[in-house]
Specification:
single chain; alpha/beta; Rossmann fold; six-stranded parallel beta sheet
């Protein structure tokens, strides 16, 4: 281990001896550290078994930090001392660096993670959006924002948010609703209980999400005699519940009564070590097709005969047809959000068996619940189902639908464009996948909000777990580039392709500079449709007039809407960048980007109106009950008719499928 941690110098040994605890402890049993030093030392000591199942690696891959007042003196000094064992990464935006940390955990299937530290004011509140994203997506990240003085000697301190009714409130309290565990460290000794609790939450399958330890700036610098044993290297064990006998029996009964089952695979399959293999074995043994959520895509190879593709609002026609006709839906590791369930209309007639480590998610849709890890639960159920299988006719129909959908994907991503026509998302996705044919490690596709996640969910061919990295639980614009950076730090051997619209690019692009600084090469594909094309289409599908979404439909000054040179902007951040005039030029640019030594940005103009019509399902978006506009009144009438049906199939023709 690095000498910075072992403290081998005589001066450090002498310092330890001079700071023996007055409680009768010996120099060998305690060490005097500041709270910040103790925190960093503890994080550095946490280890996990690597993917090879033999060696160990640090639980924390590093700390993203933007220093300011409230964290630079205390935590900053501690991070400097341990910089070799726990790397510190400087970023350009607090929300973005938190997104990168979250993406790092997602790319490691929640088995490794990162911490994030900020100053006490704007830096701390900039974490709130990222914390909500991690909370919704069940992804672990440790937030270490600076805080006000516990002593209140300088009161109010710079950036302090003062509450007129509660003197104990600070900006960090905004993180409470979006943290799975929150603690404010008001004495150095509190770390002895707070840190193990934090690690437990971060590594528990049912609890995983953001943890916040607010660090008052004076407490960070206070010294305390800590037990040396607290900092001994420790292998962290991950926790998931074991399914109970009564739950297993209820699930087995439900499955034995089913003849038309379908599986909905969520992110929990990927986060369960060996979950993808158990899922494939279960499906093959019992003849059941699989539909994948956004978080679960990649759990089964795209060309597997039982992979029915994406399920839900942005789903494939095969998966949605099977889910709608099924008499039993086996929901594995999914939180069953409305894009998966079609606003609770897609498989409303089916009995649901919910397999999940989290009881809150397992209970949804009035499911027969089994609390447990995906791998272990599927293996147990499969063993005890003996010779049970889906109806042979149902399995054969599923295979036919799956095959037909693969042909649909091929045709949509390899279509010829009319001369002069702008490409749309499917054309770009197809070009990227053609360019990845010779990628030995396989690309990682990263995306977040807008239409692109819908198109990728339907059309991206994920060949292995982790090759599809789309944040759609919180659908957060601005995640894309920062998330790509986190994925690249986690998987440096793989090419990371970031798909981002011009709207999201303008919202958060600063981590292009960070990727260049760190040598973490990305390929960023910017699809420029001059505005928020997805919401523009949804607006009109709800009867609204084109308004305030595409740049040409916005309030403008005398100079009109800007003409933005995204390639020039990316070059100013240190990246290679170019604008591709058409798909042919785009494919040539991809070749150069793959060969480049740094982040490359490729910009291509795309059609803001066109989407993939195949697949999709109804999504409930409330339409105004009263309006002076006829188009809105007509949309309201259609909305009320759909509500009355509650289960009618919509193949994406109302524009509300993403």
């Amino acid at each position: 281990m690095n000498v910075r941690i072992e403290e081998t110098t005589m001066s450090r040994a002498a310092g330890d001896a001079a700071n023996v605890s007055t409680a009768g402890e010996t120099a060998a049993s305690t060490i005097r550290l500041t709270a910040a030093q103790a925190l960093v030392r503890y994080l550095s000591a946490q280890r996990v078994v690597d993917e090879d199942g033999v060696s160990t690696v640090p639980l924390f891959g590093g700390v993203f930090a933007i220093f300011g007042h409230g964290n630079v003196a205390g935590l900053g000094e501690a991070l400097y001392q341990h910089r070799d064992a726990l790397p510190t990464y400087r970023a350009h935006n607090e929300q973005a660096m938190a997104h990168s940390a979250i993406a790092y955990a997602k790319a490691h299937f929640r088995r490794r993670m990162m911490a994030v530290t900020t100053s006490i004011g704007p830096g701390a509140t900039n974490l709130v959006t990222a914390a909500a994203l991690a909370h919704v997506n069940r992804l672990p990240v440790l937030f270490l924002p600076g805080d006000i003085f516990v002593s209140r000697a300088p009161d109010p301190v710079l950036q302090q948010v003062e509450d007129f009714q509660d003197g104990g409130v600070s900006a960090n309290d905004t993180l409470k609703p979006v943290s799975r565990y929150f603690d404010r460290i008001v004495h150095p000794a509190q770390l002895l209980s707070a840190l193990p609790r934090a690690i437990r939450v971060l590594t528990d399958a049912a609890l995983a999400g953001p943890v916040t330890l607010a660090l008052p700036q004076d407490v960070q610098t206070m010294a305390y005699d800590y037990p040396r044993a607290f900092f001994e290297p420790r292998i962290v064990r991950f926790h998931a519940p074991t399914p109970g006998e009564e739950e297993l029996e209820a699930a087995l009964e439900a499955l034995r009564q089913a003849s038309r089952p379908v599986i909905v695979a969520g992110g929990g399959v990927l986060y369960s070590r060996g979950g993808a293999d158990a899922l494939r074995a279960f499906a093959e043994r019992h003849g059941i097709a699989i539909g994948e959520t956004q978080a679960g895509k990649g759990a089964l190879a795209w060309d597997h005969p039982l992979n029915a593709g994406a399920v839900g609002v942005t789903g494939a026609s095969a998966a949605n047809a099977l889910a709608h006709e099924a008499d039993c839906v086996i929901a594995v590791g999914t939180r069953l959000q409305d894009f998966t369930t079609g606003s609770n209309t897609l498989f409303a007639q089916a009995r649901v068996v919910g397999i999940n480590a989290n009881a809150f998610d397992a209970l949804k849709h009035r499911a027969t619940t089994v609390l447990g890890d995906a791998r272990a639960t599927l293996a147990t159920l499969s063993e005890r189902l003996c010779g049970w299988q889906a109806s042979p006719a149902w399995t054969e129909r599923a295979r036919a639908l799956c095959g037909a959908w693969r042909e649909t994907v091929q045709s949509r991503t390899h279509a010829s464009l009319e001369p002069g026509a702008l490409p749309y998302d499917a054309d770009v996705i197809g070009a990227v996948q053609r360019s990845s044919a010779h990628s030995a490690q396989g690309d990682i596709a990263v995306c977040a909000a807008g239409t692109l996640p819908a198109e990728l969910h339907k059309l991206w061919r994920a060949g292995r777990p982790g090759g599809y990295h789309v944040e759609y639980g919180y659908s957060c614009m601005g995640y894309e580039i920062a998330g790509g950076l986190g994925a690249k730090l986690a998987r440096p051997e793989r090419e990371v392709i970031v798909f981002v619209g011009d709207g999201s690019y303008l919202m958060m692009n600063s981590e292009i500079a960070t990727s260049v600084m760190l040598g973490a090469k990305l390929i960023v594909v910017v699809l420029d449709n001059r505005g928020y094309g997805c919401i523009n289409r949804l607006q009109q599908a709800c009867g609204g007039a084109p308004f305030n979404n595409l740049l040409d439909d916005c309030l403008q000054g005398p100079l009109g809407a800007p003409s933005i040179d995204f390639a020039a902007h990316a070059r100013s951040l240190g990246a290679h960048a170019e604008h591709a005039a058409d798909i042919g030029a785009f494919e040539a640019a991809l070749v150069r980007a793959r060969a480049a030594d740094r982040t490359s940005v490729i910009v291509i103009d795309t059609d803001p109106a066109r989407t993939t019509d195949d697949g999709g399902w109804w999504w409930e978006v409330a339409v105004p009950e009263v309006s002076t506009r006829e188009a809105v009144r007509n949309a309201r009438a259609a909305y009320e008719a759909r509500i009355a049906e509650r289960g009618g199939h919509n193949a994406g023709d109302d524009g509300q499928s993403g």
